[in-house]
Design a protein that fits this description.
single chain; alpha/beta; Rossmann fold; 2 domains; four-stranded parallel β-sheet; globular; binds iron/sulfur cluster
């Protein structure tokens, strides 16, 4: 238990104090590049000898950013710009963002104007990614991203360094996939907030350091018997869950997240980069191969059946869909996900969340009712 407590404490400290982690990287002489959602080729940053640092907005209001965005823009982009405007991102030498949804695509232009002092590294991933043209386009976009990371960090990215970075990030994501599994088996040892802290710490800490910690934690958890009795097993779907008020409600309901389909969690950990051949091509291929996500174009909508499969495979008693406010891709898929769960006999509830919402009492009532329903 000492190892588990120690790792959880280290992750809590990092997750709750990203500014302190950032200062530690800078004090060690490292440059730091902010990395936003989704599926960014952050291996390029590691290959440049810099540290990729997660920037997915933050919990709180966006005041200044509102003059750049219509009110129906989601809180991730609103609060990211707010962070750029209030100086939170000043120590970054660049900010890597994608245009995978309409909101992000538009926001990339607002970012340039609203935080001109933070060099933008826009990665233009195509939605139509599996056609021959899509594959070529992805590779070209990643060549451009490489050039911009080199410009921002002042380093030259060699093939050797990128091949090594690909391995480092593959190892991290594999450790995180195992962690999600172990946390689901051990809710008594890893609370909802612990789980979120371990995940968020990975967005801020040096990847090899975090991988080592998580591997230690996974090994210690694997030695313990499962501790799921008395918990309600659920699958979480959506973009994010890391809002303290929500974590509290999930914990109060004694939920055990046996698996998740969250963009900031398991969807992000699913990418595998081939470790043979040209490393930049491999990085592009890892994006082309992705599927099962509301954010990715997919005529078969495999994202919908994926949620049902996750619930079935992990013995979940229900699915909780956290619908991020003003998120078009998720709103398009939500009715299909809910129907597929219903058709499969899996109880599901959809609740609306937002990083700038202060009160979650309505969500509390919805989830308490849902808990009663699944038992
Ligand atoms: S996918 Fe949704 S939450 Fe993410 S940036 Fe786009 S609109 Fe916002």
């Amino acid at each position: 238990m000492a190892v588990i407590e120690d790792v959880l404490a280290q992750c809590k400290e990092a997750a709750e104090n990203p500014a302190a982690v950032l200062d530690k990287h800078l004090a060690a002489g490292k440059k730091v590049v902010g990395v936003g959602p989704y599926y960014m080729p952050e291996e390029l940053v590691t290959a440049a000898g810099a540290v990729p640092f997660g920037v997915w907005g933050r919990v709180g209001a966006a005041e200044g950013a509102r003059k750049y965005f219509p009110p129906f823009y989601c809180s991730i982009v609103q609060t990211t710009l707010e962070m750029g405007m209030d100086g939170t991102l000043d120590k970054l030498c660049g900010l890597m963002t994608s245009g995978l949804c309409d909101t992000l695509r538009g926001a990339s232009q607002n970012y340039k104007v609203g935080m001109p002092h933070v060099p933008q590294i826009y990665v233009s991933q195509p939605q139509n990614r599996t056609s021959d043209g899509g594959k070529v386009y992805t590779l070209e976009a990643y060549k451009e991203a490489k050039r911009r990371v080199e410009e921002a960090t002042g380093a030259i990215i060699t093939d050797e360094a990128l091949a090594e970075a690909n391995k480092v990030h593959n190892a991290w994501r594999a450790a995180m996939r195992e962690f999600v599994k172990q946390a689901g088996l051990h809710p008594a040892e890893v609370s909802i907030s612990d789980r979120v802290n371990v995940i968020n710490a990975g967005y801020y800490m040096d990847k090899p350091e975090h991988t080592e910690l998580v591997n230690k934690l996974n090994a210690a958890l694997a030695e313990l018997p499962a501790s799921q009795d008395g918990y309600t097993k659920i699958v979480l779907s959506g973009i994010y869950e890391d809002i303290p008020a929500l974590e509290q409600i999930l914990g109060d309901n004694k939920y055990d997240v046996v698996a998740d389909d969250l963009a900031k969690e398991s969807r992000a950990f699913s990418r595998v980069v081939p470790e043979e051949g040209d490393p930049l091509q491999a990085l592009a291929t890892s994006f082309v191969n992705l599927n099962g996500d509301s954010i990715l174009y997919d005529p078969q909508k495999s994202h919908v059946s994926k949620v049902v499969d996750l619930a079935k495979q992990n013995g979940a008693q229900g699915v909780v869909l956290f619908l991020a406010q003003f998120c078009d891709p998720e709103e398009f898929d939500a009715p299909f996900v809910m129907k597929a769960c219903k058709d499969a006999g899996i109880p599901a509830v959809s609740v609306q969340i937002d990083q700038s919402t202060e009160s979650y009492e309505q969500v509390r009532t919805q989830l308490e009712t849902f808990t009663d329903m699944v038992h």
